[in-house]
Amino acid sequence: MNDPTFLPSIHRVIDQVGTVILGKRPQVRLAIACLLARGHLLIEDLPGVGKTTLAHAIAKSLGLDFQRVQFTSDLLPNDILGVSVFDMAAKTFAFHPGPIFAQLILADEINRATPKTQSALLEAMEEHQVTIEGTTRRLPEPFFVIATQNPSHQLGTFDLPESQLDRFLMRIRLGYPDAEAERALLAGAARRTMIDDLPACMDVAGLVRLQAHVREVFASPALIDYVQALLAHTRRSTHLGSGLSPRAGLALLNGARAWALIDGRNHVEPEDVQAVLPSVAGHRLHGQAAGGAIPGHELAERLLAEVAVP
Amino acid sequence: MSRLPPALQRPWVREALWCALIAPMVAAPLLGAAPRLLLALGSALAFWRAYVIGRRAMHARQHDVALPLGSQSNWMLLASLALVLAPHALRLPAWLTVLVVLFIGWRIAVMRTAMRPLTRGTSRSLFRGGVRPPPRALLVAMVSAASVGVFLQYGTLFGREPGVALLSIMIAMKLLELQSRRDATVLVFLAYFLVITNFLYSQTLPTALLMLAAVWLITATMIGFHQRDPRFRQTTFLAAQLLVQAVPLMIVLFVFFPRLPGPLWGLPRDGGQGVTGLSDSMSPGSFGQLSASADVAFRVEFPGAMPRPVDLYWRGPVFWQFDGRIWTIGSAPSGPTAPPVIRAISEPIAYTVTLEPHFERWLLALDMPSALPPETRMSGEFVLLANGQVRTRVRYEGRAALDYRVNENESEANLRRALQLPAGLNPRTLALAAELRAAGLAPERMVEQVLDRFRREPFFYTTNPPLLDSKHTIDQFLFESRRGFCEHYASAFTFLMRAAGVPARVVTGYQGGVVNPVGNYLVVRQAEAHAWSEVWIAGRGWVRVDPTAAVSPLRVESGIAASIAQDDPLPLLVRGSVPMLSRAGFAMDAVANAWNQWILSYNTQRQQQLLRNLGLDASDWKTLSVMLLAGACAATLLAALFALRSLLPGRRDPVVRAWERLCRKLAQTGVVRAPGEGPSAFARRAAAARPDLAAGIGEIAACYVRLRYQPPGSDAAASAATADLQRRVRMLKT
User: Fold this and answer.
1) Does the CB of B647 have a partner CB in chain A at under 8 Å?
2) Rounded to the nearest 5°, which phi and psi values hold at A45?
């Protein structure tokens, strides 16, 4: 590590978010790794387990400019991107940027919006720019989207198609807190106030430097072999619908790099790949078995067990 | 549409009956009592198996895959069946061959109808215009008719010939009810069986090559039936791969499979019908027939120098008894006979004979045999005899003295036999003999005189002499026709000698042989069969006299081809007048000889000899079986290693090897690394399980991870670290 000064700050971020989201340290760490790898994050779980709180806490701790969009079925693309309004005084159209022009967007309950609105957001995620009324506008750097979604069997949801799920580097689940965490949660202060009081642990420049470091984390030929073996196995395997794409492979490697960096290492080990794989591959794999669909994270576990570490 | 009883409509019933009927029909007559019992048991087992499989198939019938007519697999099946049926077609009676071809043609017509594009109308009009397979009832009628036909042809349904005939016609008819992949599979396996039946007739190299091609094609066909869209190139390639992979196992089985002394099953070619060769009698014209045969009688290798052609007298049966026309061995003398006594004068020479089966007891030996090959004995007239009929190709080593004295003291009984004459025949010859005797010459001089007469007077040597139709055959030959083949001269000379009071007998065998320069061995063909005489002279014993040599010296000096007139019938291969043909003939014979020596004649003795040379002592079949199993395991393992090699990349990386060694060490103590377990995770778990080794394991894992996953430093540092890792793994005491 040639520049270790930012590592403590990233651990402070994780610790601080951990005081708000109790008992979910692995998920917090995954979320941070995802952002360091310049990927977008999808949080899927039931309402009320702290998805929004997590996004909020991360934004505050990283010192990012934060916007939240609540997705509903009547939300229109312009509600996200922005709109030009005629300024009577200046006699010109003035562009009013939408919530997308923030460094961190929380797209809450993204699967409640119509596909049209979903795709407006997803284009921005991929291109890091938006085109409104013929003008292309760059989005700020860094640019993250944390989307939350309700499990698809809930009422009033539009499932994200596979191609759009692929835009998210990771999908994580929070799940219910354990007993101790829940007791602390019930006894503690209101989360909202806690978030308002969170100090920023690092600045934007520091975050950009860390992202640059992620790309330099060393992946040895043996490790590349391992990642490739994992990808190849998903393509050969009979119980997986379709294999992982090369984009998924890159996401896996970058996620593992970020994970290694958080660990303070300048090289990737198989364990890093294994740590991020369920989150990276879980929403990309679709297994079918006699009993019905197999959940993605279970497939990921199987994949890890079946492919030998070279 | 079908009026069959419901039981017979079930395919498994038909097939079970079929199996239970055909298999014993083909095999039963070939076997002894004990194997017959085994066969009956096997038959019952097969029936039961077919029953069980059939029941299963009944349940699985809805899953049976219909075979699209006109698909490529169909054509390949036809081609492979044609390939295995073709050699049989030449052996089957003509009507059966025609029927088989007819049925195959029918099948092709059905397939072509199905392939015809549907231009207009429905499938109904397609059927009206095209060729359909026969209805079930007609098929049953045809099967019955064919069986009856085969029965009428052979008088039985059992045995090799009717079995193969039945099998061929049934296969051709099975083609007509080929509808599903099940049917196709049955046909494929029948085709494999037909491959075996071909070897019942011929085991030569060309047959083996043809059948190898057949097996290849059949296997490709079978693969094709299990693919959705088979490609010829792909299936044949895969089949070739399978065959090549089977080669190590095949070699192991060939070398180590316990050989039974004698053939596994007696081929029903009893009595050697149709086998040309010497017989146990000699009449005028019998050798002339042999001269038309280019069949190989035997092949000889000489470890040392080859004797001169004039010395190459290969001794066969000896004839004592003459009835005026036919020479036979005759009954053994009633009195005591002297044992054969051979005194070698020249240094005996060694040779090895590979004798083709001739279904007689005698073995050909170079005159005069001075030592007996194992498991043979010698008759009173120096003929080598095997313990039984020579039914398979045999190989034996002999020794011969070219200069010899034999039975200088012959028994009275034998001398009397050697003077026997048919009463009241050949008065002119008897008169001539009386003249000779009256001259009071010594026997040697008498022999010279007679030979001189053959030389002087216009006697001719020919394979095509005029028929001797008189009662006095010797008179007719000596004084009228004067044209004859070796048997005429031997017969007349022996008769004359006997009449003159000199004991004489006829010896048959072969004379000469052609050196194959490719394989450097001597080939003796049936055309080189020969007959000569032996006279007994007091003080010298039995002396060989070849009257043919007096008439035609070329016969013994240069072989039969040089001595026979161009217009006399003689096989091209023997005549050797076409250099190209003879060169190709030599090469082909050398290949056939190698095939015989190394593949077909690989018997108990050769097996044990080979194993001894390999340093293995395999005296009994138990040891052999163990070796066979071990060899098969080794071959399979080898193939498995070859197949698994691709799954082990980086095998040679010393870092990985050291790490695997650590994993093995820990696995022995019960800490087994899961395949998907990373090194650090495993090291943590292992350290928790074995706190005493925690430090060592931690260091090794750190070292391994550094070498394998961290940015590489200098080469020197890496090799030092590798050595360190290896040392640490070695030192770790579990």
Assistant:
1) no
2) -170, 180
What number of C-beta contacts closer than 8 Å exist between A and B? 52
The distance of B711 to chain A (nearest Cα, Å) reads: 6
B663 is catalytic: no
Q: Could you report the predicted ipTM of this complex, rounded to two decimals? A: 0.83
Dmax of chain A from CA atoms? 69
Cα–Cα distances in angstroms (integers) from residue B582 to residues B184, B297, B573, B576, B724, in the given order: 46, 18, 6, 5, 72
Q: Which of B399-413, B480-494, B613-627 has the lowest mean pLDDT?
A: B613-627
Using omega within 30 degrees of 0 as the cis cutoff, is the peptide bond preceding A142 cis? Answer: yes
Cα-trace Rg, chain A? 20
Residue B663 with chain A: CB contacts under 8 Å: none
pLDDT in tens, B277-333: 788 888 888 887 787 777 888 999 998 888 888 889 999 999 998 988 889 888 776
Domain ranges (residues) in chain B: 68-230, 281-577, 648-731
The verdict on whether B472 is a catalytic residue reads no
Of the pLDDT bands very low, low, confident and very high (cuts 50, 70, 90), residue A162 is confident
Instruction: With CB atoms and an 8 Å threshold, state whether B708 touches A220.
Output: yes
Facing B709 at nearest CB: one of A220, A304, A308:
A220
- How far apart are alpha carbons A25 and A44 in whole angstroms? 16
Residue B506, pLDDT > 90, answer yes
Set of chain A residues whose Cβ sits within 8 Å of the Cβ of B649: 225, 310
Q: CB A267 to CB B711 under 8 A?
A: yes
Which range among A266-280, B11-25, B605-619 has the greatest average pLDDT?
A266-280
**Which residue of A lies nearest to B709 if distances are taken between CA atoms?**
A220
List, in sequence order, every residue forming a beta bridge with B406; answer none if it has no partner.
B342, B541
Give chain B positions within 8 Å (CB) of A308: 675-676
Smallest Cα distance from A2 to chain B, Å: 14
Alpha helices in B362-426 (DSSP H): 412-417
Chain A residue closest to B702 (CA)? Answer: A269
Q: Which residues contact B522 (CB under 8 A, 6 or more apart)?
A: B299, B300, B301, B302, B306, B312, B513, B514, B515, B516
The overall pTM is greater than 0.95: no
Q: Is B703 a catalytic residue?
A: no
The CATH code for residues A217-306 is 1.10.8.80
Q: What is the DSSP letter of A6?
A: G
Looking at the complex, does the CB of residue B646 fall below 8 Å from at least one CB of chain A? Answer: no
Strand partners, B398: B351
pLDDT in tens, B101-143: 999 999 888 888 777 655 544 444 444 556 778 888 888 899 8
Q: What are the domain boundaries of chain A?
A: 4-208, 217-306
SS3 call for A202: coil
Q: State the architecture of A4-208 in CATH terms.
A: 3-Layer(aba) Sandwich (3.40)
